[in-house]
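Example 3.
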Amino acid sequence: MDATPLSPRRIFQRMVARLGEGLDGPLLAITALLVAIGLAALYSASNETLGRVNAQLVNLALALGAMWVMAQIAPQTLMRFAVPAYLFGLALLIAVALFGDIVNGARRWLHVGVTRIQPSEAMKLALPLMLAWYFHRNEATLRLRDFAVAAVLLAVPVLLIARQPDLGTAVLVGAVGFYVIFFAGIGWRILAGLGVLGLASLAPLWGLLHDYQRRRVLTLLDPSQDPLGAGYHTIQSTIAVGSGGITGKGWLHGTQTHLEFIPERHTDFIFAVYSEEFGLIGNLVLLGIYLALVTRGLMIAANAPTFFARLLAASITLMFFTYAFVNMGMVSGILPVVGVPLPFISYGGTALVTLFMGIGILLSVHRHRKLVQT
Amino acid sequence: MIGDLRGAEIRDHERELHHFHLRVGFAGIAVLLAFALLAARFIYLQVLQHDTYASKAEENRISIVPVLPNRGLILDRNGVVLARNYSAYTLEIFPARVADLDGTIQALSEYVEVQPKDRARFRKLLAETRNAESLPIRTRLSDEEVARFAANRFRFPGVEIKARLFRQYPHGDIASHVLGYIGRINTRDQEKLAELGVAANYRGTDFIGRTGLEASYQQELHGTTGFEQVEIDAAGRGIRTLARTPAQAGNNVTLTLDIKLQQIAEVAFGARRGAMVAIEPSTGGVLAFVSKPGFDPNLFVDGIDPQSWSELNNSPDRPLTNRAIAGVYPPGSTFKPFMAMAALELGKRTPRSAISDPGYFEFGGRRFRDSKPGGHGYVDLYKSIVVSSDTFYYQLANDMGIDAIAGYIGKFGFGSKSGIDLEGEAIGVLPSPEWKQRRFAKPEQKKWYAGETISIGIGQGYNAYTPMQVALAMATLAANGDMYRPRLVSHIDDIRTGERRHFKPVLQQRLELKSENVEFVKRAMAGVNIEGTGARSFGNAQYSSGGKTGTAQVIGMKQGEKYDEKKINERHRDHSLFIVFAPLESPRIALMVIVENGGFGARSAAPIARTVLDYYLLGKVPAAAAGAAAPAGDDEEETESD
């Protein structure tokens, strides 16, 4: 034992070291970079006031805490939570459908005592947990029947969420569930068949969509049809992106942003703010960072010890990708406007906590990679 | 066995891992492709389409806000202001931003007085004006009302207080037909402005001259609209001004008209209907221009309310008709001096030509009666004007024939537009066989009958001229045949260059009249005022003058017919006319007065002319309404009828 008494500084350094012990440096670094970009863009989107930035810092503290907790839980332990988490989430979704609060025409929120929660958010992690657990349990004998069961497990919450309606979350939950099924090894032929079936079901699906959702899809095809209504978001964000040019207008100098032409510029459309001010170069850098995030996540998945951990890590990683792709796609006008935030950058506590819990799961999978291999 | 199993498991495990890695690789490629798609989209937007979007962002950001010019002033010849502007607060509603208009107006009335006529006007404006930004519900708010609304404005999104310039006519209805009025720019005006290529200069302008000088000098008075480049946010709020081009006020228009003279003339008319035009013979400058009744142009400056509008429009007195240029009347005996000129110039009569007037002229078995039963006895050319012998002119007209009359009389401007700088001039009727041919449809009506020529000689029959035309003819005769284009504007002060543009007199034509003939007719007209039909009004004048009375049968103007009997009778009375110029040597003023249903020319019209000349030549201001008191008794000096 070291005889010299420890200085407070040494104690602090050790505590940090202990806290970060076994956590993946590259993944944390990539995430930190995204968060930093997000705070800078948020500051600009808030017209250089600190109110929202401070609030986001509080969110960040909460999210980091959630991440740290998740990172401490071994995948084997996590597996035990899969079924209860899924069933609990499903119950909440049904409760929302029955007693939920309607905000902006959508029934998404559930009153729990003093606060309101959005159960669909929990499904983003509960569903991949459940599916990964299911496939892991039947690992040795995976047959078509298992994929069919998985499809049902996927479809029920997705439909409940889509009915609220919350298209953005439904897309993300559906995507993450699909990724689990894909990585579990569903046959290519079945996949191709499902693809054809999906295309064929577009027409009846159109009938299920709400008016405003249809309008969003139609507006995507021609935003100028409704420049002040449904097309306004896309038109203004496209102008912001396009007017940014190669080098951008400079941080805090975006006119579209500062004159408030961009709606929801703190949350779903923050990419328009970033893109206007940092231009093509900034966009390519951001794409690079997300690519690094996906690469690192897939590497962690590839090195994961168990089927469960692999499926979970890979599907969560691709969920990050889906967030980024759908968000940037809708802001730049090639995808319909659905409520999907830009991961680690958009303002908002709920999304941030979910995302960091996902990072926490990846960290945990990475930390426990060697344990079983011995 | 066990070992085999294990081996199989491991192999299985590895195969499965291999499959997983394949799929991870596949996913990685899919992610790369998706990001490549995004990158391509970014390159398209930010490199290829950058210019388009950059300019769209600028358009978003910068709004061009018009800065309205002050409308030019209108001044009389002595610099007295006749039309000016003042700034006042208006309460304006943006219809597009207010869901419940009636409810909002009702709520507003708790803070600001809103009368039924304000509501009516607002509804009228709302119906008339397409895509208007804002419409006034109240104009000319008091300071207290402004303060009350300002304290409660948060209750009224879409309602704003604006400082606006208003036109003001300090003299009220005096000279209203000269000044005209302004009206809100409508769709038709916008099309016209676009045709003229000046639409941009009218951005933000709400009002345009509708009638009178406000209309005919609209382009001069309007000025140049300035522009402000304002950075705006998405809600349209101005953030800061980036650049500013100030507005240039409209040019000031100074008239030849003397507002004091105008006022004296209008007071002299009193409540009677009629018109008067006074011209400076040597320049064509209009000194006074009366059309009674007039209207208060101030009613129009913030959009006239429907009730006032319908009162003005439906009044049987037709106050919106500019009688001086748009009313046509038979000239009656004021036609005779010009007939005499024609007879002398064409050699049909000499100063010594005389007839014996039996009181009628017989033609084709029909008797054309003189207004004086029994006739005037021996009548030569001089006396024919002084006593206004009808028989003399029946005969003269018959001797000259309609072609000669029309050809000669037309030279004095009868039957053609005078060219005055006002819009809406009527042409009138200079009767001729050609005119009849054009005017009528049926063959038997198209033909000119020799009998129709007879009453043309005394200014009746188809004769119909505007007071402006008769006044111009008088001025032309007074100026020995020099016809100057009548005009109201003396000069315009160009605000931009500081230059004063004088309107030089425009000699439209010079009638080659023999001076002895002109002298003769003028002497005869002097005789009218000394010993003839004008003597009662002008006998004691301190200046020399030449005049001619006239009485015209009511056939010209259509009147509102639904009126009580007493009024109808009144409206069938003859019109009273008088033309005069003074002084005899180098005349300074020539004028024509008509009093509708005023009876004999000497009774109603001549006293008005006297009042006007007394002021213009002597500076004599009559006691107010002095001219309004018309004698009611019979007038034996002149009795004219067909």
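Chain B has 24 helices and 23 strands. Residues 555-566, 625-642 of chain B have pLDDT under 50 and may be disordered.
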